[in-house]
Amino acid sequence: MKRNKKLYILLIVIILFCTGCDGTMTRDIRHAGFILNSEFTCSEFYPQDKDDLYYKKIKYFTSSHVIDEDGKIYELSLSKKYSDGQNCKEVYTSLRVQAIMDNKIIKAQDNKYYYLTAENNNPSYSEVPQTDNSYATYDLLLKSSDIVKVESISGNSGVYYVLKSDGNVYEVIISTQDRNTPPRIISNRIVYNRMDYGELIIDFNYFGDSIYTFVKTQGKVFRMMVQNAEDCQYPDIPCDYQMEEDELFNKYGNRIIVFNGSTLITDYKKVFSLQKS
Questions:
Q1: Is residue 256 within 8 Å of residue 267, measured between CB atoms?
Q2: How far apart are CA 179 and CA 166, in angstroms?
Q3: Is the pTM of this model over 0.85?
Q4: What is the mean pLDDT of the chain?
């Protein structure tokens, strides 16, 4: 009886200790400019216990999908759980994602392009036909085997940011002479250099001078931070943004399941959204 009582007390202490840790982390995340939104249940992406090293890791996280490091696709429903109580649902398809563009076009391991989300009467996961008006652009930007991610910066000006497997993000400018001439790359330069961040860049999001712009390396996260937050609350004073290493991720990087520039998910299944500045 005494032994059971000691075990019970020990269990309560452990629970209180863990809860306290989570509470401290939640406060720190809030102080970093995030608000607590909801809970994220997706058992595939959480360790079963402290010794589990083989749980799935998220490579791409969009508003509608999660894609793991093996390229497997899961649909998301953050606002309402599926019938099995999960916020994610595996898509039963042979497609395995190699690269992604604008969170809506994927390049699969068969080197073909597919719609991740339904577009212009084309269902999700269907192949992008060459008759698609943007097919030549997709092919130009995604064709190379070293492409990881592409973001359109200014479609009208033909400006795109491209993350490659060499760990650099490039600004690629495309020009089209006329409708009968295929697009071609006229400029290609590094905008985020891995040497400036100390490691290979593995993810990024560009949203101009904004708190949603970030660069993620293998061990750190750098975000656009407002330097004059108090002053730029006034409409006649512009905000001054600078890219800085985010100490939040240094402290809790091993407990943050994913961050995509606006949404952060912790290992205790809480979803936080970055507040607009």
A1: yes
A2: 33
A3: yes
A4: 90
